[in-house]
Every structure is written in structure tokens, then in C-alpha cells.
Amino acid sequence: MSIRGLPLLLGVLSLIGLGFGVGYISYPLLHNAPETHAVTLQESPSPEQQKMTIFWEAWRLLEQDFMGKRPDVTQRTYGAIRGMVATYNDPYTYFVEPSRREVERDDLRGRFGGIGAAVEQSEAGYILRPLPEQPAEKAGVREGDLLLVVDDQEITAATPVEEVLALIRGPVGTEVTLVLRRQAAEGGTPQELTVRITRVEIETPSVEWRMLEEAADGRTGYLRQTLFTERSAAEMARGLAELQAQGAQRFVLDLRGNPGGLVRAALDVASLWLDGDVVYIEQKANGETTVFRAEAGSQVLDAPLVVLVDGGTASASELLAGALQDNGRARLVGEQTFGKGSVQLVHELPDQSSLHITNAHWYTPKRRPITAVGLTPDVVIGPGEDALVQALAVLNEPVGPARRPATAGN
Fold first, then answer.
1. pLDDT tens for residues 333-355?
2. Domains of the chain, earliest start first
């Protein structure tokens, strides 16, 4: 059977970046920027105001005395914010500039307005690889065309990938103009051409599935979850339904290399496997603790399940794996997971940049910590071992006692 989902779409590079940046963002909601409160100047400035006086004096002196090319105001402002955030010494509390944030949002939505082409970075710059029957191919873009300009904005090898993607993407139905360089046949002169492409909605599925031909029984379904997006639960439900229609009675869920994504999506996916059980426990900075449960009514309540994990399994994917393990719903096979169990508030700032602030930590249903620890698989594979083969071996083991859902606080 063919694998469903995840074509090589525009944004393939951003998905990699997402894994070690946005992908670890795990708070499910985007919070509006906090209200701005006017500061009433007093006769005696507060210590904070005095420190800001020092900041502005340093700004003034740099503006006055620096010899050389000066960064613009935006660069200085963003640099100051990044420096301030860095003093908190938390890798998951960070500032994201507008273009990167726009790509980040697209990836977590699972759809965007694009041209239907992969973008690959090379020493020469950014290479386009159009997908079949997509607008880029129909407009004449060919495999290997070098991207020079997007809507009058020059593109070089030094241009950040997030900026390139943000320029190419845009509202569905709008037009983008690309200037490309095409290599000629041997000995020929490279050709420069301009193409205009109307953007369409491009979907970036986060789940792929197939019947496992490696399983001799012919009734084992395989699902791979690559990211937790707004569309993930619906994709997982569709995959399970199609596999069950093909005769699947047991499953392998592959979370290897999954950097996380939206916690709400992980909770919704957990509800397809768990029946009202505890999924995770969240403890906020103010001490408030909340227990989150799966919805009642699992799609595959008792079907045998094995989950594949590795060092790239992080954040929301660790949350799901820990819930399945603690509730006795599945055994984990693979390597120790990454160990990212913190929750970030995502504050959208007025210029479309964002500030990500660690605000809470979560724990498995049995209150096991995840941060800096990760999850230990039930079956740890050694170097050179095939995790999928081990997963099938686990599925073939005799079924043990009925599972006992974990109780929060155990």
C-alpha cells in the first residue's frame, strides 16, 4: 500500500528548523500580547526606570560615536530583546522575528498559501524543486532552478530560510513573481527568466500510514506522526479508519524524530487511543496544577499498540508517549527520548514577532518528570538494531493482564 501524507512541499527546510525551535513550542493557544500600561513618571524614578536610562544612554552613545556600518533601528531593537531574553538562561524562552514566526504558524496550522515547490539550500543559494501538477510546475519552474528574486526582494545564499519561505508564501489567490536562473546544457549560457505564480492552498500532512508488509499476519497497521498540528487528530482518525477497513487489528505508532508541536493536538490524538484516561499533568509557575484527560470513547480502545521513540522524540510527542506508557495502553520501543517537558506561552507582538515564555512544566499521569530526563522505553534497542523489527516482536508477545489506567498523583 502507498504511504499517505507528507509530500515534499515548500517549507521542507522550515520543518527541520521547527524541530529544534518552534517544534518544541508546546502551549496550545496563541496568546494575545499583554495590555500596554502607561507609565506615570514620578519625581523619584524607579530602579527599573533608572536602568532604562542607562540603556538609552548606551543607545545614544553608539549612535553618536560608532564608526562603521550601523544596524538599523529594527535590528538594534530585536538584538536588545534577544539579549534580554538570553539572560533568563532558558532555551525555550526566546524571541522570534516576524518572518520566522509566519513560517512557524503555517507549519503548526498544517496548511499555507504557496506555489507547490520544495526549497533546498545550496552553496549557490536556494534551489527550487516543483511538485507534480502544482502551480510552480505549471508556471514553468524546473527542477534545479536557482531562486534570485522574489517580488523585487533579492535572494542570496545568506538570506535566512524563514525569510525566503515567508516571501514565497502568502494569501491564497495572490500572485508572486520569481526571477530564476536555469543552468544550460554543457557549454551553454545560463538562462535568467521571470515567472508569475498564483498561490494555492498547500497542505502539509503530519501523519502517514500504511499496512505493514513486514508483518506476516497481514493485520498490522503503521502510523507515523511527524508533528502535532491543528490537523493532526483528524489525520490520525482518518488513518486509523482506513487501516481498520484494510483489516488492521494492531498498530505501530512511530514518534521517532517528532519534535512536538501543539499540546492541544497531542491531547486530541491521545483521545483516539485512550478512553477518558489522564494524559498529562501541568504545573504552572504560580503553583496551579491541572490534570488533563482524554475524551471518553477511544477509536481503537483495546487494539494492541507499540510506540517507537528515539532521541528526537520531544515535547508533545513525549507527552503522548508518556500517557500511553503510564496508562498501560502501549509499550515504548527504541531509545531514551529528548526530555522537553516545559510549556511555553506564545505572545504575539504588534509587529507579528513573538515572545515565547516558559510558564509551566508537565508530568506524565504517574507524575514522572520529562524535562531533562525524557522517557525510558520498555524495550531499549541497541546500536544497529531495527526498531520496527523489535516493535513487531513485542506485538507478537502474549497479551498480558488487562491494562490499568493511571491515576493522577500515583
1. 999 999 999 988 889 999 889 99
2. 111-203 (2.30.42.10), 205-395 (3.90.226.10)
